[in-house]
Please model this.
Amino acid sequence: MSPSRWLAIFASLAVLAIGVSACGSSDDSASSSSGSLSGQIAGAGSTAQEAAQEAWIAEFENENSGVTISYDAVGSGGGREQFIAGGVAYAGSDAALEEEEGELKKAADRCSPGKLVEIPAYVSPIAVIYNLEGVESLQLDPETLAKIFNQEITTWDDPAIAKDNPGVELPDTRITPVNRADESGTTENFTDYLSEVVPSIWSYEVSGDWPVKGGEAAQGTSGVVEAVTAGDGAIGYADASQAGELGVATIKVGSQYVEPTPEAAAKILEESPEAKDLAKTPYMFPFELDRKTESQGTYPIVLVSYLIGCTQYGSADEAAIVKGFFNYVISSEGQAIAAENAGSAPLSTSLAKKLQPAVDAIESSS
Amino acid sequence: MEAQVDTTTNAGQLLAAASGGRRRWGDRIFSNFAVAAAVTILALLAGVAAFLLIQAMPAVTASSSDLPGGKSLIDYIAPLAFGTVLAATIAVALAVPLAVAVALFISHIAPRRLLLVLGYMVDLLAAVPSIVYGLWGIFVLGPAAVGPMEWLEQKLGFIPFFEGPASVTGRTMLVAGLVLTVMILPIVSAVAREVFSQTPRKLQEGALALGATRWEMIRMTVLPFGKSSIISGAMLGLGRALGETMAVTIILSVSGIVTFNLISQANPSTIAANIALDFPESTGLAINTLIASGLVLFAITLVTNLGARAIIARQNIQ
Model:
């Protein structure tokens, strides 16, 4: 080919490249604000928090018209990674920061010279949902629950189920256990509960991936709800707020069978000790959930999701927005909105009071 | 490529000379643009392959205990590749006879008025987004298939495909395969139809004149003439079925196992569906592992396409 022709090729490629980069740049200038805060920040992380985040952000932006917050529900792991890399101002995570792979240290470095902030912001009960014709209410103890999900118990008229449900006529329908097909915090918390409470029956490693093969698997909370709705004899686990018309099993805690109500779920944080070894700053509140609790009226199968941020940011504006936003999230108003829109369990006022210093520590003026 | 470009340029120069040099620039721009487009395609393909290779490398070199599930990379990908091929095979096996029948009906049997409408209808099937097929599969076809699948288990349970126990939700490999069948039907039949209708009239009339019935005429002239188009249509369909993501992700109840049992609740996943399911919550090495599985899918589709081209090339020589 002649040089002039090559030149033309490169020229056309160059034009293409310029066109693409032009599309990439956007107008970042903040619009005029009526509130005291202005600017924009980004957060990323937990998909479980997504509905709550959307509600919080909408309301917060309403009150501070100069503020834009974007939350990308990439998943907890991705959120922590982006936070550490400095890509986002805060992360939403279904697990507290851990020592593994130096995560805690890297996160601390990201905030340096400021300090890490980690507060539980979203507590959601995970309900055991079932679809069994003619059975209106179902009581399960943890052993039976674990045996149903590891496929040891295969029919509904099994003596173990009958023992938990005196007086209930159980059909001989085959049990179809439904689990999440995608990796999820819901699965992780559900299996964590089983392995904490009945380790002799549930010997699998706890992870976001469902460990038992051969069950029915569906994508996302909506997929599990749909599969349980469709199959007679199906049983699954999903955010309590999404259970809809399906039957919800009560779970034996101590000597009682407890329903997955928001109050019962919020109570677990009061029962549980803080994981002191994972709290590297006074502003971190990682919880070691006490799944084995026998305390009355506590529902132990819950998902606790955290907000992770720093006490100092590059710009005072950014810090002020993070502070304002975190403050709003743990306020009774913010918790009520999440409960309404995402079916979460509001934090107790005593816990919110305990978390307040962490939010106050964010330095809004440099 | 070079030779072709030069001929067009020469022809352009001749034309330009004839018209007094005015058209020369237009030809230049056009030929340069065409070359640039061709180079971009090659660069894109090479870029995608390079991306997959580079990103998959960490998963290939990592020790198996660090990979998701603590299994070796081959153990991780093999069931997925199996599921991918199984779902696509069901789809192609069901879609090809159906598509050929539809194509023959449109090209040789249907009355003229019906022909146009039916042709459009089949093409419209291709315009339905795959997510819609997925929703249709999970809300309509799946529940409707529960009864027939129980029947299959009872009557034909001795065949490994229908061993059961039949799923109560209908989210099985068989249903996923059926949805894929509907999805690739228009592609296969459009390619076949186009070639069937080009069967030389002389051949067809000759066969009829020799006393062949309509079916014999089709069997002796149309089908042999359209053989390579059926194969290339089937391969195009196979390509789509292999890579189909959303419909399978929504419908299939996946369990990471290898089984030929098509009607139970435990099914092998497919590569594309597995990536869609696990990518959102994956980080670090888990992402490299998913990309490595993507590389395998890329290789499978590449091999199928090359195989199809080889078959068609041999057909054409004969």
Summary: The two ends of chain B are 27 Å apart (CA to CA).
